[in-house]
Design goal:
Helices cover 73% and strands 0% of the residues. The protein has one domain. The longest helix has 28 residues, at 3-30. The termini are far apart. With 126 residues, the chain is mainly alpha-helical. Helix 1 (3-30) runs antiparallel to helix 4.
Length: 126
């Protein structure tokens, strides 16, 4: 793959994370869970994902760190139905599992395809 192709793929993956965050913010209303305490999970984590993705699109210096943070949030999303006890609500349960997997895959892709450009070559032993 060329550097240009990887760059476009990383940007597309970042947009997937951004849209997934937006979906998490909206989803409590879609699943009629906006009056429950667990709605805050979607609102907060979705908002964080949107902020991280927006920063990644504009801040090249810390892209790799932002992707690893997104990976951790994806694990949180995946585990939250068990942590907050709404596995009985099949729509929300499946939604969070799918979004967690999607964000994890997109974030891992971005993190491992991040170019490493050391400012100086490593010194050889004397």
């Amino acid at each position: 793959m060329t550097t240009e192709t990887v760059g476009r793929g990383r940007k597309a993956s970042t947009i997937v994370v951004l849209l997934s965050g937006l979906w998490l913010v909206i989803s409590p209303w879609v699943f009629n869970a906006d009056t429950t305490g667990t709605a805050y999970d979607g609102w907060i984590v979705g908002g964080l994902l949107m902020i991280l993705a927006a920063c990644e699109l504009g801040t090249p210096a810390i892209k790799e760190l932002l992707n690893w943070i997104s990976c951790l949030l994806a694990i949180w999303i995946f585990a939250s139905p068990w942590m907050f006890g709404y596995t009985h609500d099949s729509g929300r349960f499946i939604n969070y599992l799918c979004v967690g997997v999607i964000v994890f895959i997109a974030s891992i892709w971005n993190a491992i395809s991040s170019p490493h450009h050391p400012s100086q070559p490593l010194p050889m032993g004397r």
